[in-house]
Amino acid sequence: PGCSVAQVPVAEGKSVQQTVELLTRKLELLGAEKQGTFCVDCETYHTAASTIGSQGQTGKLMYVMHNSEYPLSCFALFESGPCLIADANFDILMVKLKGFFQNAKANKIESRGTRYQYCDFLVKVGTVTMGPSARGISVEVEYCPCVIANDCWNLLMEFMQSFMGSHAPGVPSVFGTKHDSIYGPADTMVQYMELFNKIRKQQQAPVAGIR
Fold first, then answer.
1. How far is 92 from 208, CA to CA, in rounded Å?
2. What's the average model confidence in pLDDT over 10-31?
3. Tens of pLDDT, residues 106-139
4. What is the CB neighbour count within 10 angstroms for residue 169?
5. pTM of the shown model
6. How big, in percent rounded to 5, are the helix, strand and coil portions of the chain?
């Protein structure tokens, strides 16, 4: 199914939580129904210094991610690709590989919130947190009947504008690389990785509206 993951800015004068409530109220007014909760998390691993060698190579970052929509899977992504889909035991493997990859624990980030169903659309509005504080808002919209992402972009866009207004996103970069191939779970995880990295970078600057 074609899917878009986007960040929504915090509304002026509002907190993260109040902005999430505004969005979910709009969805409920459209007639969307709550269908449980969701969580996507991401841990950052960097190449251990001992494995980099003396040629001045830079360490690589690897992101290990989970999505409650795929409870039996674990996703391992590098920033420039590829994405490995493994079973849930992958986390145990990462502990054994700590001589090669070290967990940057302070960088753990997750998005958690409510799932909504509206006709053929599945919408997930999440609060993105790092440590104890809310850092931003994610909105994932999936058009369930369609497996070729580019075929459903106009529909997705129209629906997102109905409750996100001018904050509806542009075409995700994964759509550009997919062309007419089938969209899969890894494509959604790449979008979450990009969104989390964007939010991490924004944290270098102070954020208004978080209390």
1. 38
2. 95
3. 889 999 999 999 999 999 999 999 988 999 999 9
4. 18
5. 0.89
6. 35, 35, 30
Q: Using CA of residue 173, residue 174, residue 175, residue 180, what is the dihedral sign?
A: positive
Task: Give residue 211's pLDDT.
Answer: 45
Fold for the domain defined by 2-203: Hypothetical Protein Pfu-838710-001 (2.40.320)
Asked if 24 contacts 116 with a C-beta cutoff of 8 angstroms, the reply is yes
Q: CA-to-CA distance for 171 and 163, rounded, in angstroms?
A: 17
130-172 pLDDT, tens per residue? 988 999 999 999 998 877 777 788 889 999 999 999 999 988 8
Which of helix, strand or coil describes residue 37? strand
**Tokens at residue 152, please?**
């459903």
Hey, which residues does 83 pair with through a beta bridge? 77
**Cβ neighbour number for residue 125 with a 10 Å cutoff:** 26
